[in-house]
Amino acid sequence: MIGHDVLDAGLGDADDDDFDEAVEAFDSQLPENRYLDREISWLAFNQRVLELAEDESLPILERANFLAIFASNLDEFFMVRVAGLKRRIVTGLAVPTNVGRSPQDVLSDISAEAHRLQLRHADAWKSLVRPQLHDSGIEVMRWDEITDAERERLGDYFQSQVFPVLMPLAVDPAHPFPYISGLSLNLAIRIRNAKTGRQEFARLKVPPMMPRLIEVPHDGDSTRFLPLEDLISNHLGDLFPGMEILDHHTFRLTRNEDVVIEEDETENLIQALEAELLRRRFGPPIRLEVTDDMDDVTLDLLISELSITEQEVYRLPGLLDLRGLFELGSVDRPELRYPPHVPTTAVAFQPAEQNGRPDLFAAIRKADVLVHHPYESFATSVQAFLEQAARDPHVLAIKQTLYRTSGDSPIVQALIDAAESGKQVLALVEVKARFDEAANIVWARKLEKAGVHVVYGLVGLKTHCKLALVIREEDGVLRHYSHIGTGNYNPKTSRIYEDFGLFTTDGQVGKDLTRLFNELSGYAIEKKFKRLLVAPLHLRKGLLRQIDKERRNALDGRPASIRLKVNSMVDEQIIDALYRASQAGVRIDIWVRGICSIKPGMEGVSENITVRSILGRYLEHSRIFAFHNDGDPEIYIGSADMMHRNLDRRVEALVRVVAPAHLKELTDLFDRAMSDETSSWWLGSEGEWTRHSIGADGKPLLDLQDYTMANVPRRRRARAVR
């Protein structure tokens, strides 16, 4: 057997070929069944979201929102992950699977688990959330539950607002089966011609531009809603006069909406992407959701016409498409939500005088600034930084990556203002950001019209890093002001996504970013950076060397530990390196939000690995990579997850955090997250996630997000005073 000594002969200083050879030899001794299936792990993540909807300790409107999030997540899972697996199987491409089973078996397992979760999701709405909403004065009714007077008022609404936009489509020899768009809600209607006695089929699309939940006018104190499809279903006679309505049922189709572009074979990426977006609308069906009372005649017709298999049919009780519950966000019942939280301005960025305008450049020159969103404001930090740069006459250039941003983004406007004032502005817009492609094309063209230099990154790679660089002339010298973040430059999602951002005037970071932007916009190829780890060239190798350094320190009897906070942990090389470190005695904490393929607790392999997950009010989105480094901690933050796509097919960047106060803040956060006294989910060796939210004394465990919300501003103020 190959032992630890294979990797001990100065591996940290070995060349890449020696490193790869030694790693491969060692990994051959690890057990074959050492990975959890990534797709089943993703479904387990969505189950954790569902458990929040089932949690009676949470405000009821937040629980309804978690039901909607679960539904939206699952839609994207089918449109991308399941669709991608099916496409590869059909086209004969290799299907990545790290669990030693055939793709068909994986799809079968996905189907079984997805069916189970969708039924649990439907039951959570029917048995848990809807009744408690009703008790709280928010009633989602069915037609047979409302009064005659309410039906009459809704009938008037139907005639004036709904009927004119409906488009019933008959299916007969003169009318072929219509195209069913992805994620649309539809009514399948069987009718009989009163004159001929012939039975016919019709499809009616529920208008997606209209509110899904129609408020029911009534005289009581409660707020009542009726699903739009229920209103339409009970007025079908107006749409088919002279016909007998035999039956009607709701159904919904999910299509393959993944975008695949052969960039090496196209001369114009934007034109190719726009063509692919049009094709996306007509992707093959991959899931059919129907109400559980649909008759066999109608279902058989849908299965036949849509060319879908029985395995891809989901019979569900109650409402389909619970994304509609997002609309309850408009209900003005603050007592049924999380208590409001207004992000504070980071202490370093607060104005020196009351009602004065802060000078962010002066604050960053004084010391590095680490901001933690949404606990600290994005608007008064990142946004204010770019807006100040846009109007500052001493700023010569701004360079920035844009992966996802909001439709009315002040970030984009700041770049436009800067360009119009004569500054050099470079915007690297990633037009291939999934499901934001069309919006990003619009913004790219708007930026170009304003004089911004817009580039689209490197062929074959997505630019996912979150970087901004401002070049400012100060006393005849050019100074670099850098921002490296873990989240998108998106003011809207910054209110609900947990992320970190580092502002610094460190000259080496500025040089690293300058070279990286040159690589992204031109033809320069940089393989080494001083303060950054950059994918796809050397981020993976850099992390593997850091992990192996901890392994060797442990073997030498020195303290060693690794802590990783990521959205996903899938990459086999990284996982195997962590297994090797665990075998050497390195204590490893992994804080993961979503997918996790690593198996903790395997005898002789991963007893030293602990995996926790935290979900709640905010979406944990930051990535942190912390190494003990023999008492001289190395901690990085950045945009990369431990997935093949992030390490091999994206431009990602991690920056090393060096300020002692920032290192302590990140370490304290990890201590609290991994504590047994903090509410979280714990991963077992067989892939099961167990929620720990109540302590031995029967009291709720610490909510990390609530604690951080209350203590980040206080801790920052105390540090500033010291």
TrEMBL record:
One of its GO terms (molecular function) is ATP binding. Its EC number is 2.7.4.1. Keywords: ATP-binding, Kinase, Magnesium, Metal-binding, Nucleotide-binding, Phosphoprotein, Transferase. Catalyzes the reversible transfer of the terminal phosphate of ATP to form a long-chain polyphosphate (polyP). Signal peptide: none annotated. GO terms for cellular component: polyphosphate kinase complex. The active site is at 464 (phosphohistidine intermediate). ATP binds at residues 73, 497, 593, 621. The lineage of its organism: Bacteria, Bacillati, Actinomycetota, Actinomycetes, Micrococcales. Its cofactor is Mg(2+). This is Polyphosphate kinase. It catalyses: [phosphate](n) + ATP = [phosphate](n+1) + ADP. An intermediate of this reaction is the autophosphorylated ppk in which a phosphate is covalently linked to a histidine residue through a N-P bond. Residues 616-646 form the PLD phosphodiesterase domain. Mg(2+) binds at residues 404, 434. One of its GO terms (biological process) is polyphosphate biosynthetic process. The keyword Transit peptide does not apply. Belongs to the polyphosphate kinase 1 (PPK1) family. InterPro entries: PLipase_D/transphosphatidylase, PP_kinase, PP_kinase_C_1, PP_kinase_middle, PP_kinase_middle_dom_sf, PPK_C_dom2, PPK_N_dom, PPK_N_dom_sf.
